[in-house]
Structure prediction request, 196 residues.
Amino acid sequence: VFGSVTRAVMADRNDPAVERLYFLQGSGGTGKTYLYNTLLAWVKATDRRAIACATTGIAALLLDGGATAHKTFFFFFYINNESEPSIFYETHQADLLRTADLIIIDEVSMMSKTIFEFIDKTLRSVQPRNEFAMPFGGKVVLLGGDFKQLLPVAKGNTLDQLTICLKRSKLFRLFRNETLAVNMRVVPEEIEFVEF
Prediction:
């Protein structure tokens, strides 16, 4: 996963053959946060820019320089399909999004498809016209989470949760799925961390 994402970050932004959208699935302890922070360190070391965020404040705290997705993409109130981005092209926040080489969003299993599509709309709106038509503004985006854990909050029952899940978005089909399967907290060499 590290190699795929770093190659995408280094690739020509106008090359349509480059995969730029990744979804990292992995249960707790498989190393998702470690991978995110390794990528963030690599981006910084190569004089590039990255944005790291998560759907919860606790998850955001685990990311180097992390913030909540709400703060990053400026959705503070009720969002629906007609909501317009709250970040204007000339602002500092738009410049941060526009110049980011990598955007990491953790714990997306808790994100509704409406918010997911709002993030796409926001990233497109802050890009120059030639990149506006590209999904997520042509950015390299790494989503991560575990759909076996938490789904988005919805009024009603589990079916209602599944209906608003971002997996139901047509945009999610554009993401290359990667999986981390080995629980690093229980491998024999790390047994002392399990007992902690």
Residues 32-45 form the longest helix (14 residues). Residues 112 and 164 are 5 Å apart (CA to CA).
